[in-house]
Amino acid sequence: MTDQLDYQVTVEELSALMKRTAGVHVDPITLQQQADDGFDTFGLDSLGLLGIVAELEKRYGLGLPEQAERCKTPADFLALVNGALKTGV
């Protein structure tokens, strides 16, 4: 369980999840540079984000906060998810 709590989702991993779960290809460097832009800028809709949340919950055996599904930007999403992974909430 300690490993889960120490884990942080990176921009690179988010980019890979976007491609794998939603079919949206975004270069990690572009995603990092435009992390405050809306997910819709990258072509990711709410259903795609839901798939990413589900994948992370399955991977870490941890229910993420409901707000994760409503994050508007990659920066907000990563901050929320990483905070939840760190605290185990």
Q: Can you walk me through this structure?
A:
The structure is a single chain. With 89 residues, the chain is an all-alpha fold. The protein has five helices and no strands. The longest helix is centred in the middle third of the chain and has 15 residues, at 46-60. The model is unreliable at 1-5 (pLDDT under 50).
- The poorly predicted ranges are 1-5
Order of helices and strands: HHHHH
Beta content? under 5%
Could you tell me the number of beta strands?
A: 0
Radius of gyration over alpha carbons?
Answer: 12 Å
Q: N- to C-terminal separation?
A: 12 Å
Sheet with most strands: none
Task: State mean pLDDT (0 to 100 scale).
Answer: 91
Any key phrases for this structure?
89 residues; mainly alpha; single chain; disordered N terminus; globular; 5 helices
Brief rundown of the structure:
InterPro entries: ACP-like_sf, PP-bd_ACP, Ppantetheine_attach_site. The protein has 5 helices and no strands.
